[in-house]
Design goal:
Protein name: WD40-repeat-containing domain superfamily
CATH class of the domain at 142-331: Mainly Beta
Shape: globular
InterPro entries: JINGUBANG-like, WD40/YVTN_repeat-like_dom_sf, WD40_PAC1, WD40_repeat_dom_sf, WD40_rpt
Helix content: under 10%
CATH topology of the domain at 142-331: Methylamine Dehydrogenase, Chain H
Low-confidence stretches: 1-15, 21-52, 56-119, 439-445
Structural class: mainly beta
CATH superfamily of the domain at 142-331: YVTN repeat-like/Quinoprotein amine dehydrogenase
Keywords: Repeat, WD repeat
Pfam families: WD40 (PF00400)
Length: about 475
Amino acid sequence: MAIEENRSHNDYLRRMTFAAFLKSGSLAAEEETYHSDGDHHNQSTFSSNSDSQRPSNASSASSDSSSPIYPLSPWNQTYYPSNDNTTSFSSVTQSPWNQTYSPYHKSPWIYQTRNSDFEDDPDNGLIGTVVRQEGHVYSLAASGDLLFTGSDSKNIRVWKDLKDFSGFKSTSGFVKAIVVTRDNRVFTGHQDGKIRVWRGSKKNPEKYSRVGSLPTLKEFLTKSVNPRNYVEVRRRKNVLKIRHFDAVSCLSLNEDLGLLYSGSWDKTLKVWRLSDSKCLESIEAHDDAVNTVVSGFDDLVFTGSADGTLKVWKREVQGKEMKHVLVQVLMKQENAVTALAVNLTDAVVYCGSSDGTVNFWERQKYLTHKGTIHGHRMAVLCLATAGSLLLSGGADKNICVWKRNGDGSHTCLSVLMDHEGPVKCLAAVEEAEEDHNDGDDGGEKGDQRWIVYSGSLDNSVKVWRVTDYAS
């Protein structure tokens, strides 16, 4: 197993302010195509064939020299950075975990630390890298001091302090989405259309067992006897409507209401009750694949699709039943909607698209479009919020860190540039208070410090520290 070579701090750009970039002029634009076998959906060039986001047929990302030049951001002198290395990725090979012995006897991941990243700015930079030798990282979730990662090897790894802590293996289906509840249940969405449920042991925290799937077997058998519970998905093919029949691309939790939302390439949004795993609703939400779903403020749920629309659903109680009603279509465009994130404190929803832009809306009397952020020269694949920060990961291999200002504008604080492939997923957790005060200036600036996890199609998970002030 080859260990990735360490690079010195001066050999590779990881995080630059805009001022530093404008003085350097050393970045060369490049674009790269990634391919992977095993999926029947057509994809544009910015993602692999087994990617969890399905672009619209009306748009694709071009890698030739005739690509349009995006306008400058009104909030900063926005540029479109790219890394100088070009790495080609082969087809997905068989996972080394498919062995007769325990699949976690030997982890195929390598942990690396790059302390040189903190020489210039100890509050911001790359902490470490976890590299996997086969397969892409499609999903991750952070819960406390644990990190859960999913890939196209059909396995979920659990990390603690970036050390191999535990893992569990599904029987089939690339792991496209992961969410974790406060009671230590883990829900995973898969390429085969299934949602699997796992739970950690109280006696042995390192042990995770599968405790079911959605829908439950009991509900599946009960519903299957009634012909009215079926929907026609293609000629002479009917499926049970409480079950996804295509890849589960996204999951979102609302634990206060005890609900789980799932979106799928089958164009539906499904609502599940956490207490008994019952499917409460199956909504034909879009005209194309649902790429992203997020539970928001004011009983609202947002869904984005390859059909280019961003829709708003409101939870309403009708008699004894709960229904989600379409109340607004915030956006309709040719480019696919690929990522969503919500700032619950300020009631802002962010929407990333395959054209590299991020649009955002604020709640006033109603949701109002407030602007467009330009920071990526290729598709935005993932978004995450952390306090006043917005993190955007793109097919251009970069992570932009934006700060929402008091007047509602956004300033790019830094660009994290260490990945060698498209950034597929992001998660952020606030750093523990005791770690805040380790430095000499801890707590004096009134800033928040965040640990950011990023998963990429370069087969790695990287861990960063970011703050909400510009360096």
